[in-house]
Structures are given as structure tokens and as C-alpha cells.
Design brief:
Number of strands: 3
Order of helices and strands: EEEHHH
Radius of gyration: 26 Å
Number of helices: 3
Strand order of the largest sheet: 1-2-3
Helix content: 25-40%
């Protein structure tokens, strides 16, 4: 019995360690590893070439040890408390002293 030779066409895989590009909705995202940690970031573009350029830029930063990680956009509770206190002082509220005391007692005193 003879088998017919079948030519399989497969998509070319990216080399190990070169990251990936994928689409979520209409926007292209990049994904890569650094020191065993997975990073994902939006290219904020609908253009695949732009996402490819961003991925190459990030991989270059990692290779030259210039990559600092993705910036955290977090804000701390202490910063929020300070903003509330500033707001109370600006609006000249009568309960400013109470608002100043509570974070010191319950949050910052520990």
C-alpha cells in the first residue's frame, strides 16, 4: 500500500524568546518574557507593523538591560488621604481636624 505525499502548509513559528503579537478586537498586543516574568502590553494601534516595531523595541531594551518594566499607575491609600485632606482645607470644612486625625490613627499609625 502506497501513501500519497501530502504537502502540509504551516504557519512559520517565531523563534523562542522573540515574543508574540496577537490581536484583541481591533488592537494589536505584544507579549514577551523578561527574567521569567510574562509581560503583555497594548501597542495601541490597529497596524500590525507598528506592533511589530514596538515588540522589537522592547526586546532590544531587554537585551541591552534598559527595560525598567511597565510603569505602575497605582496610587496609595496614603496619597488618597492626603488629597482628601487638601480638599477639606481648600473648601474650609469644619471637620478638617477629624479628617486629618482618622488616617493617622487607623492607617498610618501601624
Amino acid at each position: 500500500m502506497r501513501r500519497a505525499s501530502v504537502a502540509l502548509t504551516t504557519m512559520a513559528k517565531r523563534a523562542y524568546g522573540k515574543g508574540t503579537i496577537y490581536r484583541r478586537g481591533n488592537v494589536w498586543w505584544i507579549q514577551y518574557f523578561r527574567k521569567g516574568k510574562l509581560y503583555s502590553a497594548s501597542s495601541k494601534s490597529r497596524d500590525k507593523a507598528e506592533a511589530q516595531r514596538l515588540l522589537h523595541q522592547r526586546l532590544g531594551e531587554i537585551a541591552t538591560d534598559r527595560f525598567q518594566g511597565l510603569a505602575s499607575r497605582g496610587i496609595t491609600i496614603s496619597q488618597l488621604c492626603d488629597l482628601v485632606i487638601e480638599d477639606y482645607k481648600f473648601k474650609k470644612r469644619r471637620t478638617v481636624k477629624d479628617v486629618e486625625w482618622r488616617p493617622e490613627k487607623h492607617l498610618r499609625g501601624r
